[in-house]
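Hi again,

Forgot to attach this to my earlier email, sorry! This is the prediction with alpha-D-ribofuranose bound. I've pasted everything inline since the attachment limit keeps bouncing my files.
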Amino acid sequence: MKKVTMLDIAKMAGVSKATVSMVLSKRDHSISEETKNKVLDLAKEMNYIPNSLARSLSTKRTGTIGIILPDITNPFFSSIARAIEDEASLLGYNVIFCNTDSEINKEEKYIKLLISKLVDGVIFIAGGESENSVIMLKNNNVPFVLVDRYIDTHEEEYGVYALNKEGVLQGIEYLYNKGNERIAFVKGPKNLELSRQRLDGYEYSMNKYGIYNKKLIFEGDFTIEGGIKATKEILKSIDEIDAIFYSNDAMALGGIKVLLKNGFKVPEDIRVLGFDNIEISEIFEPELTTVAQPIYEMGKQSCKLLIDVIKGNKVENKQIYFQTKVIVRETS
Ligand code: RIB
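Structure tokens for the complex follow:
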């Protein structure tokens, strides 16, 4: 069946194609109500679907934003993506999700794809050494907002972040005040500034309490598997341990499985603290105590900020920082 065009509607309505175009693109202030209604009724009756590519070539807008995420299977990213999509549709934008698995070549391929698709802007959660990805966006004048993961471009970019170091300070203070001193720390991926910020918070606060011991620091990668691996390492190399602080909830959940399988009781024998406050943390058994990031709000604000930038609206602050807070549950 032939696709209905504006010319078909014009012929049926007995008006010019230009009139139909003005009515359908709401540039119809000089057109009578009668003609406007006739055109709109016909477009509906004939199931007319606007050609978005043709429209975007004329308006230089596609009404679409791209979202680049490192790992859609991690509930932190799927929750933040959900918040962005909710806000985008409220503001009349469609979204294109790109999952990079934190692989830089995949990330750069998606950046090129989004640029070629003429997206109006990009919300970018970097997978690692993503400087080149950001340079491509800047070189193509694509508005973007960095979220969660800071990338140093030697310029102040639009960004939405949690206060990571302060979040870890809160976590250690909480554990210390409950009598925990031998607190192991499982790091995030080493190629992320955010992992260094969280480690910095751990080292600063452990030194402040005079209980720092670098043997209590273990490698991690933000995955459940990574949490399992790190916890087995901790049990193998450390005799006495009071608590384990994981740099994200996914690793903490993996770690709890290992502790329980090895006969430890949580929290009686070992306390566990995570970071994120993903939804499953509350329903997991035992329920996970964690340093909560305001995930939904971060996603919502990043979308609002990007669309303000796209529209050229006045922006108060180029960077928005969110406080974290300790959510106390059963594992501590
Ligand atoms: O759980 C995923 C982690 O990666 C979170 O801590 C978030 O901050 C992201 O960077």
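The longest strand covers residues 64-69. The pocket of alpha-D-ribofuranose is lined by residues 74, 76, 148-149, 194, 222, 248, 250, 275-276 (CB under 6 Å).

That should be everything now.

G.
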